[in-house]
Automatic annotation (TrEMBL):
One term of GO molecular function: transposase activity
Top-rank lineage group of the source organism: Bacteria
InterPro entries: IS1249_transpos, Transposase_mutator
Sorted UniProt keywords: DNA recombination, DNA-binding, Transposable element, Transposition
Protein name: Mutator family transposase
Taxonomic lineage: Bacteria, Bacillati, Actinomycetota, Actinomycetes, Bifidobacteriales
Family statement drawn from the similarity comment of this UniProt entry: Belongs to the transposase mutator family.
Protein's job: Required for the transposition of the insertion element.
GO BP of this protein: DNA transposition
Length: 360
């Protein structure tokens, strides 16, 4: 469609170059604007280096910043899911689930990385054959509650880093040096042979240094403490992991990952995107991460569908208002909003074009 003068009322007339038909209706460019904004968000271009003028690009991005992409719910049973959260300062975290093909299977925005927040993400995903995670932030509790039958593989690299944090990179004691070497070997275990060799070395280390680690001392306040607290803490952590039987779950399934590198790689790409477009406020950073996750699902919806079905600010305000009206008065803070961050809105509202009819 090309501009073809104006009507008698002063409205711009458009004419089709192919068939010659004329119309005065303005073409809907929202889908094109959204595509332009998403291409810019996923690219390395800044406002100044983009082909469009900065003001024009900002105007085209207004639609993207006013929408929230829907979270898919495909119900696919994956071979393995990698779970981790990316923190945006102290006020928000985006919990992400990544499948074995490095596609995003789901995400959830929360205030903190708690078991309640993880439960909301896990409850809308089908239980996979195995889960790989770092085991922090209430995730293990959520897995026990939501997916009790799903085997868990703790990230061996995270275990190595946790031990290194206690022993240091250059330990002073021989026992700490040997323990750190054991942690490094653990992160490289990938088959039954390497796991068995590590187990033998772990038992030898325990037998040699148990008496040394068990030494006690009396502090100034009269209490008895471990003489080597950090080393004793590292030993307790490894003992607990051995008892929980979550370090070598991958051996039951054959060729399965032992680390959370797949989701950590996605996290690094998300952080690189936020660095390229630095200066965004918290709300826009959250939406940028959500858009990144949506565009990296197996089959993201096209822009024409998103313009019509994505969550708008008006719908979000209406849901918060409904949550405020229906929440018990004891669950409100001084501002009048529900105290439970991210739990006041019915989750199904994000996945329906019509208002969700609550049975309550």
């Amino acid at each position: 469609m090309k501009k073809n003068g104006k009507t008698s009322g002063g409205k711009v007339r458009y004419r089709c170059a192919g068939c010659g038909a004329s119309t005065s209706a303005n073409p809907d460019t929202r889908a094109k604007d959204l595509r332009t904004a998403l291409d810019w968000l996923m690219s390395k271009d800044t406002l100044e280096s983009h082909r469009l003028p900065a003001r024009t690009l900002q105007r085209k991005c207004e639609l993207m910043w006013s929408l929230i992409p829907p979270v898919p719910r495909d119900g696919v049973v994956h071979d393995v899911l990698h779970l981790d959260g990316i923190h945006l300062g102290r006020d928000a975290v985006v919990l992400i689930a990544v499948d074995e093909t490095s596609h995003v299977a789901g995400w959830h925005v929360a205030r903190n990385e708690t078991s309640a927040a993880w439960n909301r993400l896990l409850s809308r995903l089908a239980p996979p054959d195995m889960v790989v995670c770092d085991g922090g932030g209430g995730l293990l509790k959520a897995l026990h509650e939501t997916w009790p039958e799903t085997p868990v593989q703790r990230c061996l690299f995270h275990i190595c880093m946790n031990i290194t944090q206690l022993t240091g990179k250059h330990p002073r004691y021989e026992s700490s040096r040997q323990l750190r070497n054991l942690a490094i070997e653990l992160s490289r275990a990938h088959d039954r042979k390497s796991v068995d060799e590590w187990g033998v070395k772990w038992l030898r280390w325990e037998a040699r240094w148990n008496a040394f680690i068990d030494e006690r001392r009396r502090s100034a306040d009269g209490r008895e403490r471990d003489a080597h607290e950090r080393l004793a803490k590292a030993r307790r952590m490894l003992r607990r992991l051995v008892v929980e039987d979550q370090m070598f779950t991958f051996l039951r399934f054959g060729d399965m990952p032992t680390t959370n590198n797949r989701v950590e790689s996605l996290n690094s790409r998300i952080r690189a995107m936020l660095r390229r477009h630095r200066g965004l406020n918290l709300e826009r950073r959250i939406r940028a991460v959500c858009w990144w996750c949506h565009q990296h699902t197996v089959s993201p919806e096209n822009c024409e569908w998103l313009v019509k079905h994505a969550v708008t600010d008006e719908r979000l305000d209406q849901w918060y208002e409904n949550a405020w009206r229906n929440a018990p008065r004891t669950m409100h803070d001084q501002t009048g909003m529900p105290q439970r961050y991210g739990t006041g809105i019915e989750w199904n509202d994000f996945h329906r074009s019509t208002p969700w009819q609550d049975s309550n």
